[in-house]
Amino acid sequence: MKKALTILTLLLSYVTLYSQTNIELQTVPIELPEQSFYVHEVFDDRLDKHLGNIKDENDNTTSYKLKGNAATTILDFISVTLKKSAEKKPIHLKIKTLEIQQNQTSIDEITTRIIIELVFFDANTLNEGKIFSISHTEDEVFSISETSQIAKTHEKRIRAAIEYCLLAFISKQSSIKNSNPGAEKMNTSHFQKSAELSKKTKKLTPWFNTLIFSKTSDKYFKGWNINYIGFSDSDDDFIIPFTFGYGQSKAKNNTVKERGYSSVDYYGLDSGLEGLLKIIPGCYANVGIQVPLGMEILKNLDGKKSHNFVIGIGAKQGIRIIPWKEYGIVFGAGFYQKFKTSKIHKTNFGFQFEVGVNF
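Above: the chain's sequence. Below: its structure in token form.
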């Protein structure tokens, strides 16, 4: 009995953390002028028939799949608009890609994407070669607060993606006929073979939330900063993360006494622009422009306090390591240069070490 309860508990845990949802494609007509073709058959060439695995706001994973057979479902959807007729030419479709992706893409937004790749054949070239192919992405952006509403919107994006591919095929065939008015007379049983129409379909990259503690030191000051840095990862593009932070530093004793003070403390916001460039997976070159903005609290040798508003400009360069995509430790090191309105010294060149978490 105890063993049976254990197995039941494990099964319930699995169902809670990992479930499957079947998407039923609505057979809504597409607004198209009358066409000279219909889709006779659809083939699903995908090895994995699932649409994708998506995590919800509770970190539970849902696997999505078109209800029934994907090829039949898509054929039924298209046939509502492109009805079979003896006067029309039959064409065939192959599904090369049909996938749902979803990722956080900014500090407060989630992007969900349908990736589709369809190949078109006419009845006489099914075994010879394609007449047209297209890759397309259909995106929609939601706020983080709308996460629970996203699942029910996947169906309309799948329909929109299929509609886009059909319209692209129709448009391409029309342009070929317009550029070659005799095409219909020359070949009445075949469609005109067109060049492949495709655009690079990038996958949605993961969003990193990082909280980083930095220890800083230069000739005149030593201190620390704590920063939140959020960014959408990229293998190709220069990454501009969302970042904000706070820091403190203290003037070193020998420098303070030379300037006639017993202590000098700086409190400020870590503002500016930061950029990341992926070198290899998990390793990033880090460059940035800083705008130091804060306040110095100075105490002279008599114990009297004074305040100095600090502003300036600076730069930093370094390496940041994020070994794990989901959760883990972040660490890095780099150099910085600052020019600011400090009472102690206006030019600072130093180094910093970073350690933090990715969550």
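The domain at 207-358 is CATH 2.40.160.20 (Porin).
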